[in-house]
UniProtKB/TrEMBL annotation, chains A, B:
The keyword ATP-binding applies. It catalyses: tRNA(Pro) + L-proline + ATP = L-prolyl-tRNA(Pro) + AMP + diphosphate. It comes from the Bacteria. One of its GO terms (molecular function) is proline-tRNA ligase activity. Its EC number is 6.1.1.15. GO terms for biological process: prolyl-tRNA aminoacylation. Residues 38-318 form the Aminoacyl-transfer RNA synthetases class-II family profile domain. Keywords: Aminoacyl-tRNA synthetase, ATP-binding, Ligase, Nucleotide-binding, Protein biosynthesis. InterPro entries: aa-tRNA-synt_IIb, aa-tRNA-synth_II, aa-tRNA-synth_II/BPL/LPL, Anticodon-bd, Anticodon-bd_dom_sf, Pro-tRNA-ligase_IIa, Pro-tRNA_synthetase. One of its GO terms (cellular component) is cytosol. This is Proline--tRNA ligase.
């Protein structure tokens, strides 16, 4: 993509009133636009990062048998009343409205209910199970406060997956597979070392649920960790019993601030009993289906990545989620040099490299470098009269301070 | 994809209360699920078709310089008040709700206002123009009636594009380019011969706007067409003046029923004046930006394609939007034959063909064929003991009645 054609422009200042570091940087660099508190649009650069993250998650969900679908934002009141999650006293993040005939509707903040209701059409026998479905859905949540940028929004993208299983054993096998798949996701986006499978409060069916917590000062959670033992406990469930169960003492644990990037939850048969989702087992008995629910906050993950890797100059994207792999910056002024820079851009693209080409002519070298640092693309090539004379480019990784000269003929993959 | 693992199953009957032919077929085949009137979820097969259509549109929008982004569902009241489109008397499809502090919000049914407001951050000089942006957005519209299946939903996917230009001339050039790009889209999805660029009512700035109308009995519009002269006129603007302007007589026109699959609209400087989006021209003068707006109903297009090509046996997808190119149906019962069928599936996939593999063992041949016709995948291969003995498959196109035998070695691309 040619930077001269990109409608967004880097800004020196974040908008007044934006207090979150991740959103400040992302707005300044032109990845996102703030519509209102907790509500952000994703601009051409931002949508590229989002799609990269989604594709990583999609591949890992497909690999464990997930089938992608997309449910609806509009929600029927009757359904959520059956599980007692319609009342604002019970769920305090609903946005609600009504049809012209007065029928009340909600806007989807989660989707266990509609997916489970739908499965009544597709599940009748044990032969139909297990089923794993997931979606990338824009969730709408009427949050009281929204001050964490894209890490906690009123409108945000979540990957939510739901598993339907015959029994605890079939459920458990998949549940454990999701833990591994989630850790592969966090590894691929560069967060593995700082992300912990964390014991958190369970529900009617289990002592614990599992959260995936990533260490960051921008987080809203506090967890206790022991890196050697690979144990992490949300402070909400830290007590004598938990410590005993997990074989660790409080002294061995360190308190850290974290953001919840994923969570997985065993609903058991609670919700399927409420909604009447049953199957017939191989003896002819009618039995409620086991439900599991598994989320990764896609836009939150993008925010956490920014928070985790950014430095004083700007964003630093891991290559796997960067909007482009290469930022090719032209400082050429002579026609012949410009032609060569253009050729390099075309050949890089043709060789399959994603390139942002800073072909702008009315911008100083200093501004180009500063903006490049702000954008955070992993690899920067500078092409100028000087480098062309030696048939080289100046190459610098965003994570390093030193640049080196590389032969042009060697940059194509 | 293995059909044995697909959680959806074909049904013989459409749900009671679903009156639209497109939705009846799509629900029966497992492409979509009806959440409520005008609100449909897209299941694994359906999401594949949607993504195919989106990708065709994306390529054509990118080719004319479009930059993809994604705006928000949540909308600020103040903004829409500035253009007098907040009041329910003026716009009767709003869903509205409010934040916990009482601030009223709307849910996006269109996005001219927020995108134009945003552009105030990115447009200041004539050098910043033109800008073309587009999105695939889930629109929410509080329609009084919703009886056309996915052709008119309360929740649906639209590609909406917006152009910002210095003046009428710059605007016009892009506007005409969009007409061509849209016709390429309709050609690629198989609808070109039945789709007409149609004169429809304009606005404050132009005598006409242009709609893209596709002939179908499921449509809600009536237009007058003359195929030879390639003229189409929405009945709403058919009068003496229009006939004179277009050089056609009423006798030369035929009245047909159509669905509006796209529309393009010249807002001139009306909305940018209301919202204060100006640029400085090369003489230093402050001038309002020209706005154009261009929509294609993505889910509606999917519905129109179903309506247009389906026959009494089920859906018939054009290859460009089909969820899979090949439906490989195994009738094998012997282990060795099954192994060979599996090999064919793997080799087809490896050669880059998208294959739905009907590997189900407890389903009769007759049911498999009937369901295959319902699903509408363009090419069907049947593999059985008999065909394997001759090292062939039985091949039939969904659009043809005759089958033929093809050598297995020749099916890989």
């Amino acid at each position: 993509m040619r930077q001269s054609l990109l409608f967004t422009k880097a800004r020196k200042e974040a908008p007044a009133g934006e207090v979150a570091f991740n959103a400040q940087l992302l707005i300044r660099a032109g990845y996102i636009y703030k519509e209102m508190a907790g509500v952000y649009a994703y601009l051409p650069l931002g949508i590229r990062v989002l799609e990269k993250i989604k594709q990583i998650v999609r591949e890992e969900m497909d690999a464990i048998g997930g089938q992608e679908l997309i449910m609806t934002a509009l929600q029927r009141k009757e359904l959520w009343e059956q599980t007692d999650r319609w009342d604002d006293e019970k769920v305090d993040v609903w946005f609600k409205s009504s049809l012209k005939n007065g029928v009340e509707l909600g806007f989807g903040w989660s989707h266990e209910e509609p997916i489970t209701e739908m499965m009544k059409h597709y599940i009748s026998s044990y032969k139909d199970l297990p089923i794993y479905v997931y979606q990338f859905q824009t969730k709408l949540r009427n949050e009281l406060r929204a001050k964490s940028g894209i890490m906690r929004g009123r409108e945000f993208v979540m990957k939510d997956m739901y598993s339907y299983a015959t029994d605890e054993q079939q459920h458990e096998a998949f549940y454990n597979g999701v833990i591994e798949a989630y850790m592969r996701v966090f590894e691929r986006v560069g967060l593995k070392d700082d992300t912990f499978v964390t014991f958190a409060s369970g529900g009617a069916f289990t002592q614990f649920s599992h959260e995936f917590q990533t260490i960051t000062d921008a987080g809203e959670d506090m967890i206790y960790i022991n890196r050697e033992k690979n144990i992490a406990i949300n402070e909400e469930v830290l007590n004598e019993e938990t410590l005993n169960d997990l074989g660790v003492t409080k002294e061995e644990l360190t308190l850290v601030k974290t953001a919840e990037v994923g969570n997985i939850f065993n609903f058991g048969t609670l919700k399927t009993e409420q909604l009447g989702l049953n199957y017939v087992d191989n003896t002819g008995k009618n039995i409620p289906v086991h439900l599991g629910s598994y989320g990764i906050g896609i836009t939150r993950l993008m925010g956490v990545i920014v928070e985790r890797f950014a430095d004083e100059k700007g964003i630093v994207w891991p290559e796997s989620v960067a909007p482009f792999q290469v930022h090719l910056i032209s400082l050429c002024r002579e026609e012949n040099d410009k032609k060569q820079a253009e050729e390099i851009y075309q050949k890089l693209k043709a060789s399959g490299v994603e390139v942002l080409f800073d072909d702008r002519e009315d911008v100083s070298a200093g501004q180009k470098f500063a903006e490049s640092d702000l954008l955070g693309i992993p690899k920067r090539y500078i092409v100028s009269q000087k480098t062309l004379e030696n048939e080289t480019l100046e190459m610098k990784l965003r994570t390093k301070d030193e640049a080196e000269f590389v032969k042009i003929e060697n940059i194509y993959v």
